[in-house]
C-alpha cells in the first residue's frame, strides 16, 4: 500500500481497481485482528476532522480508527473555528497543513475539498460532499465482499435519488467489475458526467444501467441499496418527494424480485417506512449493521495507507 502514502482521496476515481482491492484486503485483515499497524518511534499522527455537516458514523468511525492506529484526532467544529467566520479555504488549508498529518473534510461543494487539496500537502480525505461519498462506498464494497467472497460479476441495484451515494457507487462498482443499476425517477437521476465516467471505466467488464423502473432494476440483483430521498440540506423538500419516490421503496415485495440470496444495504441514517420498510431493515437479508461497522475498518485501512503506516 506504499503507493497511497501522501495521496488524497477526493473521489473513488482517484483509486485504481488494484488499489481498492488492496484496501479491502487490508480492511478485512484489520477487522480479523491480523494486522494492527501502530504508530511507533514516538510519532503520534494527528487526524483533523473539519465537518461543515452533521455526522454520526463518519465522525465516530474516523475517530475510533485513528485511536486504534495509535494516533489522535482533533474535531474542528466549523462553528468554533475561524473558517466558520469566513476565513478563506486557501488560508485555512495552509495553516492546518502545518498542524495535522491528515485531514478529513465533510462539506457541501466538491470544489471546496479540491481547493483544500491544492493548498495543503497532507492527505485530504473526502468525508462526504454533495457530489461524492467515497469512504462510505469502500465500506459498502467490503460488506459485499465478505458476504459473497467476491465482487466481480455481482449486480448492485441502487434505488432512489441520484445523489452522492449513487455517484460513488457508480464509480466504485465500475472499478471493481460489479454491475451497477440505478433506479431513479427521471428528474432525479445521477450526474451525467459521472455516469459517463463510470461507463468508460466499466467498458468491457461490467454494466452500468440507469432506469426509471425499480422492478426491472431489482430483478436478479445480489445487492439492493437505498438512501434517504432528501439528502442533508434538502430537508425542506422531504415531504414533497415522498409520492415521487414511493415506487422505489425497498420493501418485502421488491425483495421478491432480487436474487434469493440478495442482501440489503443502507448508508444510514434511515427514514423507516419511507425509502425502506422496518421489516426489510431488520430482516435476515439486511447487512446494514455490518455495513456501518465496516466504515471503521475501511477507514482504518485508508488512514494507515495514506500515512504510510503499512
UniProtKB/TrEMBL annotation:
Residues 153-305 form the Aspartate/ornithine carbamoyltransferase Asp/Orn-binding domain. The gene is argF. It catalyses: carbamoyl phosphate + L-ornithine = L-citrulline + phosphate + H(+). L-ornithine binds at residues 164, 227, 231-232. Pathway: Amino-acid biosynthesis; L-arginine biosynthesis; L-arginine from L-ornithine and carbamoyl phosphate: step 1/3. GO terms for cellular component: cytoplasm. Its EC number is 2.1.3.3. GO terms for biological process: citrulline biosynthetic process; L-arginine biosynthetic process via ornithine. Pfam families: OTCace, OTCace_N. This is Ornithine carbamoyltransferase. It is found in: Cytoplasm. Keywords: Amino-acid biosynthesis, Arginine biosynthesis, Cytoplasm, Transferase. It comes from the Bacteria.
Amino acid at each position: 500500500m506504499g503507493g497511497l502514502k501522501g495521496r488524497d482521496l477526493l473521489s473513488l476515481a482517484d483509486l485504481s481497481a488494484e488499489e481498492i482491492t488492496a484496501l479491502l484486503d487490508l480492511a478485512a485483515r484489520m477487522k480479523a485482528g491480523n494486522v494492527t499497524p501502530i504508530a511507533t518511534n514516538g510519532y503520534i499522527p494527528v487526524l483533523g476532522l473539519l465537518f461543515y455537516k452533521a455526522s454520526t458514523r463518519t465522525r465516530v468511525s474516523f475517530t475510533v480508527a485513528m485511536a486504534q492506529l495509535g494516533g489522535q484526532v482533533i474535531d474542528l467544529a466549523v462553528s468554533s473555528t475561524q473558517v466558520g467566520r469566513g476565513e478563506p479555504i486557501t488560508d485555512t488549508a495552509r495553516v492546518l497543513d502545518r498542524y495535522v498529518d491528515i485531514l478529513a473534510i465533510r462539506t457541501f461543494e466538491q470544489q471546496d475539498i479540491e481547493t483544500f487539496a491544492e493548498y495543503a500537502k497532507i492527505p485530504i480525505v473526502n468525508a462526504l460532499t454533495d457530489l461524492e461519498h467515497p469512504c462510505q462506498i469502500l465500506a459498502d464494497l467490503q460488506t459485499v465482499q465478505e458476504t459473497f467472497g467476491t465482487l466481480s460479476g455481482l449486480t448492485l441495484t441502487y434505488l432512489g435519488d441520484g445523489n452522492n451515494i449513487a455517484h460513488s457507487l457508480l464509480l466504485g462498482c465500475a472499478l471493481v467489475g460489479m454491475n451497477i443499476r440505478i433506479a431513479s425517477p427521471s428528474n432525479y437521476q445521477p450526474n451525467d458526467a459521472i455516469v459517463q465516467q463510470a461507463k468508460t471505466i466499466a467498458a468491457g467488464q461490467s454494466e452500468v444501467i440507469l432506469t426509471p423502473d425499480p422492478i426491472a432494476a431489482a430483478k436478479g440483483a445480489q445487492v439492493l441499496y437505498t438512501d434517504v430521498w432528501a439528502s442533508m440540506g434538502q430537508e425542506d423538500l422531504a415531504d414533497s418527494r415522498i409520492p415521487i419516490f414511493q415506487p422505489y421503496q425497498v420493501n418485502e415485495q421488491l425483495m421478491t424480485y432480487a436474487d434469493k440470496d440478495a442482501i440489503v444495504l443502507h448508508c444510514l441514517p434511515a427514514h423507516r417506512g419511507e425509502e425502506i420498510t422496518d421489516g426489510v431493515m431488520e430482516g435476515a437479508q439486511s447487512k446494514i449493521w455490518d455495513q456501518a461497522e465496516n466504515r471503521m475498518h475501511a477507514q482504518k485501512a485508508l488512514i494507515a495507507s495514506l500515512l504510510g503506516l503499512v
